[in-house]
Specification:
single chain; alpha+beta; Ribosomal Protein S5, domain 2; lpxc deacetylase, domain 1; Thiol Ester Dehydrase, Chain A; six-stranded mixed sheet; 25 strands; lipid biosynthesis; cytoplasm; lyase
């Protein structure tokens, strides 16, 4: 799985009819900055309202997932979101001149192809994964549905479907690596049973559905004259089925378990509404959009519960955003006052820096000899240097500026920092920069425990 956030290099568009609304629309994917996430924009409505791809914005689950915000509604978002997750793209603005993304062939493959054509660009920020550390379960006993998220330092999904049908036996699909999504899952099409078809039309759904964008499963004997009725319903000159039961118009399946794979595709798209990439083993028995969304809400609540205790995670095996050489180019500090070894995360509002504390630090011989403790003032200096990187990132030519610490408030030292510790500093803006002055909140952690914190004021001064 990627460690850096990604967007696309240029905008790209697809056009077609919406599955349920039957309205033709053009959907354009545009690059977006770090931590933007997935947002839809209805450019056909006054004010061009934006709808966040958020599970709390789900308003309808009638054979698809519909979201709404500020009076703007987007139908059937799951195939679009699945393509973005499948390519590990984090930040995109999705503009629509209609109420629903084009259904295309009923899968995600044409979105995948368009996004690959646009090109994928790595961004200067780490992905904000939520790693499931305790099992999350959802059950619907009436429909025999069960979903579970189990702890795993990866993202894997397994889906089982069982429709009690003579045409479709119990099917399983799995995805062991999200990078396999484009080739193994993305081209699996949506499907409907013949006995559901007329009811869906009567519910004013699938107005844009036909045999080019959905698989129709004939799960009962078709009576004389019924094929002509179905042809008229689907606006086709003729429809057929080789056997009394099978696939309408004898469409060839991409895989024997294409239906289970499409259910997995839907789940990937629906779980994107959590708002963050997740690390977990997902197990799903007979999932559907309503269950997926309810499950996503449970995971989001767990994320919110843990947010107050969120500690930056550091994996020393991953390449830094800025190594020591780049840090030295940006900051004027040198030994013994160069305190930061690397920057592992940096975006528009926050930064995470690493300080490896060794016994060779020059202050240890004179600061509590025989009981070495890192001076609080040096912890504060390291935190300020981390914040200095964030302040410098606000200008296009940081080499022409000095970052000065001009104020400290609410400073606290919670625990001793000792030789051998690795301190993770996180600083974030608490106010917009005005006339070169900005406020930040900084915290330092060792082994997931808070060791120091302070509110800082910094000044960005241009070199003469």
């Amino acid at each position: 799985m990627n460690t850096k956030q990604q967007t696309i290099q240029k905008s790209v568009s697809v056009s077609g009819v919406g599955l349920h609304t039957g309205v033709s629309a053009t959907m354009t994917f545009l690059p977006a900055p770090t931590n933007h996430g997935y947002k839809f924009q209805r450019i056909d409505l006054p004010g061009n309202p934006i709808v966040d791809a958020d599970v709390d914005n789900v308003v309808d689950l009638s054979r698809g997932t519909t979201i709404e915000q500020s009076g703007a509604r987007i139908h059937t978002v799951e195939h679009t979101l699945a393509a973005l997750v499948g390519l590990q793209i984090d930040n995109v603005l999705i503009q629509l001149d209609g109420p629903e993304p084009p259904i295309m062939d009923g899968s995600s493959i044409q979105f995948i192809n368009a996004l690959r054509e646009a090109g994928i660009e790595e961004q200067n920020a780490t992905r904000n994964y939520f790693e499931v550390t305790e099992s999350v379960h959802y059950r619907n006993p009436e429909k025999d549905i069960e979903l579970a998220a189990l702890p795993l330092n990866d993202y894997r999904l397994t889906v089982m479907v069982d429709y009690n049908s003579r045409v479709i036996s119990s099917q399983h699909a799995y995805l062991n690596d999200i990078s396999q999504f484009p080739e193994q899952i993305a081209n699996c099409r949506t499907f409907v049973f013949l006995h559901e078809l007329e009811a869906l039309y009567k519910q004013n759904l699938i107005k844009g559905g036909d045999l080019t964008n959905a698989i129709v499963i004939v799960d009962r004997e078709v009576k004389d004259g019924e094929l002509d009725y179905l042809a008229d319903l689907l606006k086709k000159p003729k429809v057929s089925v080789n056997k009394q039961e099978g696939i309408l118009n004898n469409i060839q399946l991409h895989y024997p378990n294409e239906m289970a794979r499409h259910k997995l595709l839907d789940m990937v798209g629906d779980l994107a509404l959590i708002g963050r990439p997740i690390k977990a083993q997902i197990l799903a028995a007979r999932p559907g959009h309503a269950a997926n969304v309810a499950f996503a809400k449970k995971i989001k609540k767990l994320i919110q519960k843990n947010a107050a205790n969120q500690v930056p995670q550091y994996d020393p095996t991953q390449p830094p955003v800025l190594d020591i050489n780049r840090v030295s180019q940006l900051l004027p500090h040198r030994y013994p006052f160069q305190m930061i070894d690397k920057i592992i995360a940096l975006d528009e509002n926050s930064v995470v820096g690493i300080k490896n504390v060794t016994m060779n630090e020059p202050y240890f011989p004179g600061h509590f000899p025989g009981n070495p403790v890192m001076p609080g003032v040096m912890q504060l200096e390291a935190m300020a240097q981390t914040g200095g990187i964030l302040v410098l990132s606000t200008v296009p030519d940081p080499e022409n500026y000095w970052p000065f610490l001009v104020g400290i408030e609410n400073c606290r030292f919670r625990r001793n920092v000792l030789p051998g510790d690795t301190v993770i500093f996180r600083c974030e803006f608490t106010s917009p920069m005005k006339r070169g002055i900005v406020k930040m909140q900084g915290r330092g952690y060792v082994a997931n425990l808070l060791v120091c914190e302070a509110d800082m004021i910094a000044s960005l001064v241009k070199k003469k």
